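User: tokens in, sequence out, please.
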């Protein structure tokens, strides 16, 4: 099987900025090369507060899932806050590949940043 079951994304930050066409956001992109679905859990860590737990998603077998962090809610209905630095711990019940991307439209020339998680 390709991938790993644990991934770390230490640099999270979602701006509140919106343009006419785009919204600043981040995504955890999951690629599942296995036949069976992957159950993915996200834990969100902060500099100055307790972690937010209970975020989950499914990535079907032989599929990808771009988990938009500005849209996901945890089991208690909490959202990931904007304008606050955070880190993400991603766990999967089977090996997957994880990539992190950020769409930043705070400037007129928007920026897309992406990196493979560790």
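Assistant: Sequence out:
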């Amino acid at each position: 099987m390709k991938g790993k079951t644990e991934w770390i994304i230490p640099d999270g930050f979602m701006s509140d900025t919106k343009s006419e066409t785009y919204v600043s956001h981040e995504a955890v992109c999951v690629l599942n090369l296995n036949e069976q679905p992957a159950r993915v859990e996200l834990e969100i860590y902060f500099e100055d507060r307790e972690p937010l737990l209970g975020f989950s998603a499914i990535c079907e077998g032989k599929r990808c899932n771009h988990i938009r962090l500005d849209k996901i809610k945890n089991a208690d209905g909490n959202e990931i806050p904007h304008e606050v630095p955070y880190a993400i711990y991603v766990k999967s019940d089977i090996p997957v590949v994880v990539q992190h991307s950020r769409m930043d439209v705070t400037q007129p020339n928007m920026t897309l940043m992406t990196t493979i998680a560790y």
